[in-house]
Amino acid sequence: MKNFFRSLGKLVWIVILCCMHLRAKEVDKASILDAIAIQTCISNKDTYIALLFPCVHGHDEKIKKLFQRYGKIVYKTTVNLTGNGPLNLLKIAYKNFTLYYNLKKRFTIPQADGSYQLTVVVFEAKSLKNVKKCKKKIRKLFKIGHYPIHINDTHEETIELAQTLLISENLHFINTETLLNF
């Protein structure tokens, strides 16, 4: 029995302890899964965050097949962006690039309450080359330039986007505050 417990990796123990802690606090299952996804992004340097903008919703199966061709989907969720959220997210995701300014092509169809659903995919790939091929194929599928998807290029960006979008307090912050240009 001792060997069994020793064979469990550090990440597994972190997940078990997080689940026990969160369960005691009666936190919803989505928060637990988000926490596990964040920890996976931190500990696995081969993970990337893909942002699927509302202009591509309804094509889940086609996109899923492309992700599976170039790597694997580790986690997928949907977050709601409201107020300043769409612009603030693009400022964070694109940093100094001017691509983020065209909100209308990325965020085309708001929900009835005025929010926008953004699909967040934690994606594992063996190389950045595979990530770029996947991104290119998804963009080619929709024929609207860079607008359907953003996938980060570095591990630091993976962690930043995961923590921004998968921690509810951070998501609330980008939805309600005005970020300065950086």
Describe the structure.
α2 (10-24) runs antiparallel to α3 (29-43) and α3 (29-43) packs antiparallel against α8 (155-166). It is globular, with a radius of gyration of 17 Å. It has nine helices and four strands, in the order αααβαβααβαβαα. The chain has a single domain (46-176), classed as 2-Layer Sandwich (Alpha-Beta Plaits), CATH 3.30.70. With 182 residues, it is α+β, with helices and mostly antiparallel strands. Residues 1-5 have low confidence and may be disordered. The longest helix has 15 residues, at 10-24. The N and C termini lie far apart (53 Å). It has a four-stranded antiparallel beta sheet, with helices on both faces. It has helices at 2-7, 10-24, 29-43, 60-70, 85-94, 103-106, 128-142, 155-166, 168-176; strands at 47-52, 72-81, 116-124, 149-151.
In DSSP terms (H or I, runs of 4 or more residues), the helix count works out at 9
Count of DSSP strands: 4
Form type: globular
Uncertain parts: 1-5
Alpha-beta content class = alpha+beta
CATH topology value: Alpha-Beta Plaits
N-to-C order of helices and strands: HHHEHEHHEHEHH
CATH superfamily: Nucleoside diphosphate kinase-like domain
Radius of gyration: 17 Å
Beta-strand fraction estimate: 15-25%
What strand line-up does the widest sheet have? 2-3-1-4
Q: How much helicity do the residues have?
A: 40-55%
Provide the domain count: 1
Oligomerization: single chain
Give the distance, in angstroms, between the N- and C-terminal Cα atoms. Answer: 53 Å
Q: Which CATH class? A: Alpha Beta
**How is the biggest beta sheet arranged?**
4 strands, antiparallel
Any idea what the CATH architecture is? 2-Layer Sandwich
Mean pLDDT reading: 80
